[in-house]
Amino acid sequence: MARNSRSTARAKAPAAPRSKVRLAVLVATRKGAWIYLGDAGRKAWRVSGPHFLGHIVSHLVLDPRDGRTLLAAAKTGHLGPTVFRSSDLGRTWKEAARPPAFPKAPEGEKGRVVDHTFWLTPGHASEPGTWYAGTSPQGLFRSEDGGETWEPIGGLNDDPEYRKRMGGEQDGTPDGPKLHSVLVDPRDAAHLYVGMSSGGFHESRDRGKTWTPLSQGLEVVGGFDAKNLAFHDPHCARICPSNPDRLYQQNHCGIYRLDRPSTSWTRIGKSMPKRVGDVGFPMVVHPRNANVAWVFPMDGTTVWPRTSPDGAPAAYTTRNGGKTWQRLDVGLPKSQAWWTVKRQAMAADARAPVGLYLGTTSGEVWMSRDEGARFSLLARNLPEIYAVEVAELSS
Amino acid sequence: MKVLIPSPLLSYTRAADVEACGATLAELLTDLDQRFPGFRFRVVDEQDGLRPHVRFFVNGEQVFDLARPLQPTDEVQLVQALSGG
Description:
The complex is a heterodimer of chains A (395) and B (85). Chain A has 395 residues and is mostly beta strands. Chain A has helices at 154-157, 160-166; strands spanning 23-29, 32-38, 45-51, 56-62, 70-75, 82-86, 94-95, 116-122, 131-136, 139-143, 151-152, 178-184, 192-197, 200-204, 212-213, 234-240, 243-251, 254-259, 266-267, 280-285, 293-297, 315-318, 326-328, 346-348, 356-359, 365-368, 376-379, 385-392. The longest helix of chain A has 7 residues, at 160-166. Chain A is globular, with a radius of gyration of 20 Å. In chain B, strands 2-1-5-3-4 form a five-stranded mixed beta sheet, with no helix packed on it. Chain B starts with a strand and ends in a 5-residue tail after the last strand. Chain B has helices at 10-13, 25-35, 39-43, and strands at 2-4, 17-19, 54-58, 61-63, 75-80. Chain B has one domain (2-80): Ubiquitin-like (UB roll) (Roll), CATH 3.10.20. Helix content of chain B is 24%, strand content 24%. The longest helix of chain B has 11 residues, at 25-35.
């Protein structure tokens, strides 16, 4: 496990020599954020944190374009939502001057209020300083100044059809409806995807001015009409860096793959073991092989416990685009482990072999240096983990 | 006038009470936000509504209206009610 450096409410700078630090595992929790700094071998780790102790941190993301700018989406139980920015890997933080917020409604009309920013995505490599944010209730926002100020994307947020699909504050997931999985096509800065829980999966080819549903082939809960996008609940979608025409999605109703230019998703989770099923939150793709992906199934039966099936947590991987799946549980508890992994709490690094990182609802961070063949504990005794990201640091 | 600040907002003001000015509660918040950037949005949402666990008291009387007039001699207290675990 990571050696715990001194931690106070004001995070201490990591003591590790910076030249030896290569990876940062960014852990966002219900009570703050922690950063685990690792060497190139992913064997020696130091912790920096807590950052924002007591804040609900939904996402902590490092900008891959400069390797050192961090954005954190945060709020507390009694303070409004905001975004914090650090340009020195969390040594100091500066609050956004204008965090994501809906426009003021005309007099006499009820306006929307951002409860929390849920998802952060760095923009295209050709657009330094551009970021996207997805919120709850659902809204899509863009910053073009590195997260300092945010503007609503009206083409989605204010479109009458999309307003219907987004539902109101009472719709969507138990923690509120969420806009997530903001994906930027690495070949085209104008080509965006978003997931709406609920509301389906959608794409824009003009930087968000107009949107088209991309939910064909996705199933909905039995008895409901799949043509009504409000019933669709994509949990997490990813675009493959090695083949941006391929997307994978973990949905409320199964695991899917989409190969563009097709607009129809194929359910690839039906080849998962029946006793495990293909319900879960996260979806992770390989950085160099679009046939390889990982999921972390949960119990979606009866009242939807959303725990590991049978209390035996395991990742599953496919190495052939979803034709077959293999269970990965070496090192993980064999029984009586009733946690799960939320939708942005599982990530892969870009090393060879690929490292996997997952944060649990019971506050543990597990890692694998060999694509999931064996897991070990990186950290424990953290608050409930909402998000895990892993990033390469600039030297 | 004197404004009493609750602990969740001390990261902005660095003091449990500060002096601020304004002819209304809204103006007072504008003044506080200019001096402590980001302060207002943490307690008032984009529709000018008080956040769910935020309460203002003026001379001990609870106030919900940001248009409430203020006098320089008033004392304003900001309270944040903790909830959840």
